[in-house]
Design goal:
Strands 2, 3, 4, 5, 6, 7, 9, 10, 11, 12, 13, 14 and 15 form a 13-stranded mixed β-sheet that branches. A two-stranded parallel ribbon has the order 1-8. The longest helix has 34 residues. The chain has 308 residues and is of the alpha+beta class. The protein is built from 6 helices and 15 strands. The chain is elongated. 30% of the residues are buried. It has 2 domains: 241 residues, Carbonic Anhydrase II, CATH 3.10.200.10; 43 residues.
Length: 308
């Protein structure tokens, strides 16, 4: 039996997306919104999903956001961009869809694309399948990729970002989605843009009210946040991901790794401190001056060799 009183969250929800991000009203969060990338390479698995192109990414890539692991499972596109920043809209928005294996929480990283023919890593990433996108609903295509082809290249060089709590931008409009919206754009070629907009539906949702939500901002300039820690790995099975490739695969593992790092640091500092104390004790015992005197006397001693 259908509950006629069921709330349509797409209409009545208070945490809906997309939104217009007011940069001057954002709150700096720094280390309170810490983001680290572990993106590996993948085959290019394309699906035409009802007038949208979905890139199903191979297992084994993930991010760590505030000590929580989120696995990357697919990349989708919006033409034009769903979100706006200070009422400015980009021609394309790329969505990196992640899910936490422990809690099933959803996190989406949003990257805006400028359209120009400047050579870039993002442009090369997208041009690989620019002319091979499936045109019909339900059609799938798989393209073999080189070891250098990875989703990390779609991200902008400067990785400052906004973050807020929102929803999926399409039905069922599920809420409590963590959005990370990159402040700076990447780019794609004119050819890619022309091919993509022929396929993707333009039935975008309107900008939704904040309803009291806060938007946070992270400059993200720490050196550890500027690199991809998954560069040297290429894993295809969940078993490889869990046992061989993943440095951190759950909240428990993250805490364990931090404790191990802290223990190593503590032991190193303890050894260093003991060494300093030992040197100070030797100095107090005039060890160094006595040793210097003995060496000086030894060097000044004349050796007499008996003639044959």
């Amino acid at each position: 039996m259908i509950n006629i009183n069921m709330v349509n969250i797409c209409v009545k929800g208070k945490l809906q997306s997309p939104i217009d991000i007011k940069s001057k009203k954002s709150i700096k969060c720094g280390a309170l919104c810490d983001l680290i990338f572990y993106y590996r390479t993948s085959t290019c698995n394309l699906v035409n999903n009802n007038k949208n192109i979905i890139l199903d990414y191979d297992t084994g890539s993930y991010i760590v956001y505030n000590t929580q692991v989120y696995e990357l499972n697919k990349i989708s596109f919006s033409v034009p961009a769903a979100h706006t920043i200070d009422n400015y809209s980009y021609p394309i928005e790329v969505h990196f869809n992640h899910r936490c294996p422990d809690t099933a929480e959803i996190l989406i990283i949003s990257v805006f694309l400028d359209v120009n023919d400047a050579t870039s890593k993002s442009g090369l990433f997208l041009d690989l399948f620019s002319n091979s996108m499936p045109l019909k609903k339900g059609e799938q295509k798989q393209i073999n990729t080189p070891d250098s082809w990875r989703a990390y290249d779609l991200l902008p060089e400067l990785k400052s970002f906004y973050t807020y709590k929102g929803s999926l931008v399409r039905s069922p409009c599920t809420e409590n989605v963590t959005w990370i919206v990159m402040d700076n754009p990447s780019n794609c070629s004119n050819a890619f843009y022309d091919n993509l907009k022929k396929i993707i539906s333009k039935d975008l949702r309107s900008i939704k009210p904040l309803n009291g939500r806060k938007i946070y901002y992270n400059l993200n300039t720490n050196n550890k946040n500027k690199r991809n820690y998954g560069d040297t790995f290429r894993c295809y099975s969940d078993k490889e991901f869990r046992k061989s490739c993943a440095k951190l695969t759950s909240h428990k593992d993250i805490i364990g790794a931090r404790h191990k790092h802290l223990l190593t640091l503590t032991l190193t500092m303890s050894v260093f401190l003991l060494l300093v104390l030992f040197i100070l004790w030797l100095a107090q015992q005039d060890f160094f001056s006595n040793t210097a005197d003995k060496i000086s006397k030894f060097l000044s001693t004349k050796l007499f060799i008996k003639r044959a």
